[in-house]
Structure formats: structure tokens, C-alpha cells
Amino acid sequence: MSHLDGTLIGGRYRLETQVGSGGMSTVHRALDEKLRRPVAVKLMHRSTAADADHLERFRREARSVASLSDPHLVGVIDAGEDQGLPYIVLEYVDGETLKDRIRRNGRLDVSEAIAYSIEISRGLTAVHRAGIVHRDVKPQNVLLDTEGRAKVTDFGIARSMDEDGLTADGRVIGTTDYVSPEQALGESVGKESDIYSLGVVLFEMLTGEVPFSAESPVAVAMCHVRDPMPDVRSMRPEVSATVAAILDKATAKEPSARYSSFETLGSDLEGALALEASRSGMAPGEATSVLKSLPLETRRKAHLGVGTPRGRLLWAGALVTMVAAVGLLAWTGIHRGTGVRGGTPSGLTQVPLTSTAAHPYDPFGTDGEHDAQAHLMLDGDTNTAWASETYGGNSFGKAGVGVALDAAPGTIAAGLGISTTTPGFTASVWSAPAQLPVAVGSTSGSSSSDPPVGWTRLSPPAPVTRNDVIRLASPSEDQRWYLIWITALPPNQEQVRLSEVKLFR
């Protein structure tokens, strides 16, 4: 029982019981005596109200969401001060937090985890459209009402996208279990930071664990900066390659490699939910409600009558169509990471390569690139790997290095798969028809980061995920050589390691 129970705030809100607390404030269930309805009242601690920065941040929370209206956001009803004590009156959500649910149940059903991610995406879409970055997306800040619907709350450190902010540069704001790399480094953050945090929340819902643990919050934050995300499918094999690809893209280390908006992330999640329902033949919990809210075309792919014999036949037909669609999705450029460990992407065939087909390629250097290890990229064992030379300062000091694949006598490839234990390096794919191009009288091709003249680029430079499939522009004729051209090392690492490479046509 709180000593504030029974207190009348703002002449209208009678506090009943404390339901939460934090570093700046406490939250109380209260009765709106004017409208006779339950509300939540967030009271700032008196000890922090004297701090101008904290006070302004608290007031800004009310301003941030007062104008927003979305079923997946906890709405602000009122705000004010009572005897010098600032307060915010919020919609009262009778339920539990998403964190409580994960702690109680462990990992969630896959379709339910996707469904909650969709609802959170919808709420944060409204937030971003208003020009606000939440900056503290975590399951503790997602409330689940009695109907199971997810609502995002706690905008205590939210900030306008065009606002300089209140904190000094270099200070980490947010909860480090879910903090984005740029936020962990104290850099300016945008909507991509919220997308990263939701990706971590999805990971936790699927596995029951946060991706990183360390001896201190700062150490955890640095894991987000330098360490690759754990492979969700190794922790939970029933997670589809489609969901793993969405997770990879949402949690890319570089903000530019993530989804550009919650609309695009939400759209991919909706397709994944329809696929997951078709795979499992059921949609438990909140997934059923979310399925019914999907766009008509997406909903048609997830025939909801699965419980009947006719429904099961429809599901089977839909599954064939959707599996083909998932294969196509990876090749449209929407998803690069589809997981090559599962074999050949749908609709493609693997190009047979000999055990000596991989050739480390260092046209602008004289030290070689561990040529004797090259066969380890083609041995079918992800526990073995080729490694580049070690480069200090996180830089090659030259245009790049690579691996050339000999597809003799030649083929028109449509994709190239990479498994790596050092995700985050930047690479593009190039081809050549006959002889292996070498550097002659120059240090690069058309730009300082291109390979020697003679290669044709088939994909743009982009960060490579742990298990990636890169779509290739189709060359006009058979090509013998396909080059993985690496121009940037992984964050805070000094070499690149490739466990397996595969060529597809």
C-alpha cells in the first residue's frame, strides 16, 4: 500500500493503488471522479521535480503523445501539476506487460510473437508519423490488455526527430538490453533506432531471452555495437527463414541497412504471420485477431477456415503458393538474409562447384589472403571457415579484398549465398566471363572501392548478415568468375571469415 493511496490529484483523480514505479515517477491506478472511470496517473518524484532537465522531459512526455490516437498506444487524457507535483493522466490498461508475459511463459508461440510485433509496429507507425522517436522500445513498455491487444506506453525519453534534445552527447539513453548500436554510442538516433529495438523485442519473444548478457549494462550496450546477433534459428529451429530474415534486417548494425519505416517492417511481418498460420494450421491467442485485421490480399493467403477439412485443403494449396512467394521475396531485394543453411532458395538450383573453385582475391596487395583455407568455404561444414588477413584499425587500407568463385565453364547466376561468423562486413558481387581480371597500372576500377577493370557489378555494396542470400542482376551471357568483393570490415573486427559460399541459378 502506498502512502499516497486516497490522495486527490488535480481535484479530480483519486489515487487507489500503486501499479508501477521507475527512476523518475510512480504510476497509480486512480478513479476519475468526474467521469467515474479508472485511469492511470503518473506522478513525478518530488526528489526529481526540482531538476529542470527531468521536469522538462516529464512534461515533454505528455506533449509527445497527447495528440496521438491509435489503438496500439496508451493515450494521454490529462496533465498538470498539483502542489508542485507534476502528473500525467493516462488511459488505464487492465492487464500485464509483455515482459511479464515472457517471464511467466518463456518464449511465445511464433505466430503470437509476430502478431504482437505487428501491433507494436502499428502503434509506432503513428508515433513516427508525428515526428517522434520513442527511444525506449522494450517489452516493459508494452501493455497487454484483457483482450490480448498490445499497446505501447512510456514516452518518458521520447524526442522529436528535429529536436536537439536535453542530454549531453555521449550519454546512453534507453534500456541497454534493447538499445541500438548508435544509441549505445551516444550518437543521434532516428526512427531506425526504434526499429532495431523492436527487432530485439521480437528476438526475446521468440527465444525467451535477450540476445546479449554481460557483467554490466554498459558491457551489454557494447555487445549491441560490436557483436553479431545470435542466430535465432539455432536457438529455435521452427522459426521460419522468412521471420529470421525480417529479424536480421530489423537488427542490422548500420541504421541504413534496416527497414526504412515501421510501415515496411509491419508489411513484411503481416506476410510472415499469414505464412506462419498456414504452416502451423492454427493461430493462437492474439494472432487470430491480428490475422483478421490484415489487408484483404494478405488475409486471403491465410485462409482462416483451417479447422475444417475443406479449410485444411485450402491451407495446403495456399502453402504451396506462399512457399514460392517466400522464395521470390528474397530475390526482390526486400530481404537479403534468407538463411542459406536450409539449402537452395525456392525456384533456384545450386550451381555445382569443385572443391578448388574458391580463390582468395587480393589484386591490390602482396600478402595473399590465406589461400590454403579457401576450400573450407565449399566443404559443406559451417564449423570451418576461410579467414582474410588481419587488418588493424578496422580498415583494409586498399580498395578491398575478395573471394573469386570459378564456375567453369560458365553460368548465368541469379544469387549468391554466404554464411559467415563475422556479419556486418560490406560486400558486393561482380562477374567476369573468362580470365580472372588483375590490377594493371592502377589501383582500382571506376572508383576507389571497385575491383580491377574487367569485372561487372551484379549487386550493390551492402552489409552481409550471418546467413545471407544476395540477389544478382542477370548477366547477358554465361560468366565463369563470380567475385565476392569486400570493401569494409565488420564493426570493431579486423578480419572477415566465410564459413560457406553457394552459387545459385
TrEMBL record:
Residues 346-357 have a biased composition (Polar residues). The chain crosses the membrane at residues 313-331. PROSITE patterns: PROTEIN_KINASE_ATP, PROTEIN_KINASE_DOM, PROTEIN_KINASE_ST. SUPFAM superfamilies: Protein kinase-like (PK-like) (SSF56112). Residues 441-454 have a biased composition (Low complexity). This is Unannotated protein. It holds the Pfam family Pkinase. One of its GO terms (molecular function) is protein serine/threonine kinase activity. Residues 340-370, 441-460 are annotated as: Disordered. InterPro entries: Kinase-like_dom_sf, Prot_kinase_dom, Protein_kinase_ATP_BS, Ser/Thr_kinase_AS. Keywords: ATP-binding, Kinase, Membrane, Nucleotide-binding, Serine/threonine-protein kinase, Transferase, Transmembrane, Transmembrane helix.
